[in-house]
Amino acid sequence: MSRTVDHSRSSSDPVPALALLFVGLTTLCLAVLYPLQQLAAQVSVTGMLSGAVLVIPAETLVVVAGLLVISASATTLGVLVLFLRL
After folding, report:
1. Under-50 pLDDT residues of the chain
2. Cα distances (angstroms) measured from residue 50 to each of 22, 42, 47, 84
3. N or C, which terminus of the chain has less Cβ within 10 Å?
């Protein structure tokens, strides 16, 4: 009498938790870099010399807020799932 055990996906598989952490950290990086890209698109040498004011558009702030919400929830859930599997 022999038993067969399926080891394809064990209960301690950390891949989903690590994927959530990766998504959370990636969206955090995007939330930081996106406004910087928007500001860099506005910068010109003549504008800097004349003292122009750099303004972040409201749409950019909305996108950044959404990315931060996704980042916070994915990272928190990933850490929670990772610790529950230990």
Report:
1. none
2. 42, 14, 5, 56
3. N
Specify the pLDDT at position 11: 59
- Among 61, 68, 66, smallest CA distance to 35 is for 61
Per-residue confidence (pLDDT) for residue 5, from 0 to 100:
57
Q: What is the DSSP string of the chain?
A: -------SS-TT--HHHHHHHHHHHHHHHHHHHHHHHHHHHH--HHHHHHTPPP---HHHHHHHHHHHHHHHHHHHHHHHHHHHH-
The two tokens of residue 21 are 């952490």
Structure pTM?
Answer: 0.72
